[in-house]
Design a protein that fits this description.
This protein is an alpha/beta fold. It has a single domain, classed as Rossmann fold (3-Layer(aba) Sandwich), CATH 3.40.50. Helices cover 49% and strands 12% of the residues. A 6-stranded mixed β-sheet has the order 1-3-2-4-5-6, with helices on both faces. Helix 2 (13-26) crosses helix 7 and helix 3 (70-82) packs across helix 9 (221-253). It is globular.
Length: 254
Amino acid sequence: MSPLLPLLSWLAFPIYAWQGIGVRLRTQRLLPAEGPVTHTIPGQGVAVRLLVLGDSSAASVGIARTDAGMAALLAGMLARDTGRPVTWRAAGFNSATATQLRDVVVPNLAHDDWTHIVVSVGTNDAKNFHTVSRFKRDFGGLLYALRAKFPGARIVWSPVIDMTTVPALPPLLARILEVRAQAINAMGTRLCHERGAVPASRLPVEDPARGFSTDGFHASEAGYRAWAEHLLPLIELPAAEALASASVAEDDRQ
């Protein structure tokens, strides 16, 4: 993508504002899903500890229960495939941006020994027309904060999906936001490589009719399942390696 496109997208800001207000007025405001935000799945051996941190997707907005959300699904898949106990927590908040996660959420997380952290953030930064330089500062700071607080964790970032696939967005608004999303994703990927995190590829949206909730913006149960399956390979193999190392270390101490 040309570096000029994000700058040129500012020329379309009046269209963004006009159509964005219309979308906001028409779109149903959904609340976070009900149910537990932390749970342990029993198993044998060294536990996997999974934190899913982010915006409304981490809060399972769009579905009724958290047990069909990304954190619970990922934990269940890990428990199924490794046989290990998996403790998970979802720390997600409606409309959260990288700034809010860095400055409000991370400082208030307990110093639990998370082995894996999935971060879902960037959509609201793109939607709110945050500049790339601002996202660099905010998301870069978030990665530093997570690495400082949870030095042993593997951090996986899930980037912004293709905004032209979002049913709630009119085509012109979707194209404008897609320019912003691509710029956010490019910077986020670069920061992950620089600061010890793993950037996932974009979640492919193959069937928007099934993948999105009733508001046409958040994921449905099928969407969250596809999302968890998409991220699982980035977590599962390193998890198995880390658990094997931990088991060896534990045996050496006995």
